[in-house]
Amino acid sequence: MFDAKMPEAWRVLRIQSELVDGIEQLIKIKGAVTVFGSARTPEEHPYYAAAETLGRLMAEAGVPVITGGGPGIMEAANKGAKDAGGVSIGLNITLPMEQAPNPYQTISLTFRYFFVRKLMFVKHAVGFVIMPGGFGTLDELFEALTLVQTGKVASFPIVLVNREYWAGLVDWLKNRMLADGNINLEDMALVQVVDTPEQAADIIKAHLVARNAGSS
């Protein structure tokens, strides 16, 4: 949250402190999957169950799960990972509505600055899985696409779960953005769309196998 009363020099030190703390806390995390989705999704919703399944599958495969640490889809993915005995990371953010960290985190960090938190989402990611969500979810989706497209991060899968939910966006990307020449055909391949969390987990696991084979 922006603090207008804080001198600029002190704000820089606070930012530096968040960066150092985040890096130190997560330094041992190698190859995590970052899961995004709506904080408004109730526990009884099928999207919640799907995110919980995804978290469980990733934990069973030995892949740490990172979320924004809040309720809804984030809580579900953390719950699935923690209940399966995996590493369940929440990168919480201080908000005016006082978002409380969900109780299913084995590592819990709280950030004041969105851009520091975003760095942590990407720094250890070997894949982004995007569940149905709102503005914040789209923000993370397009930031990841931009970073991969421009080569600012090593390429990793960006997977949209629930084809019906994302169909309108994908059609717009193809029929408007691509058709108008604002992206290339290969850019469309940066996004993979699936129907189930099992399919998303398979994509992440296949990427890890290929990456590990390439580094051996």
UniProtKB/TrEMBL annotation:
It catalyses: AMP + H2O = D-ribose 5-phosphate + adenine. It comes from the Bacteria. GO terms for cellular component: cytosol. It is an enzyme of class 3 (hydrolase). Its EC number is 3.2.2.n1. GO terms for molecular function: AMP nucleosidase activity. Gene3D superfamilies: 3.40.50.450. SUPFAM superfamilies: MCP/YpsA-like (SSF102405). Keywords: Cytokinin biosynthesis, Hydrolase. InterPro entries: LOG (IPR005269), LOG_fam (IPR031100), LOG_family_nucleotidases (IPR052341). GO terms for biological process: cytokinin biosynthetic process. The keyword Plastid does not apply. Pfam families: Lysine_decarbox. Belongs to the LOG family. This is Cytokinin riboside 5'-monophosphate phosphoribohydrolase. It comes from Simiduia agarivorans (strain DSM 21679 / JCM 13881 / BCRC 17597 / SA1).
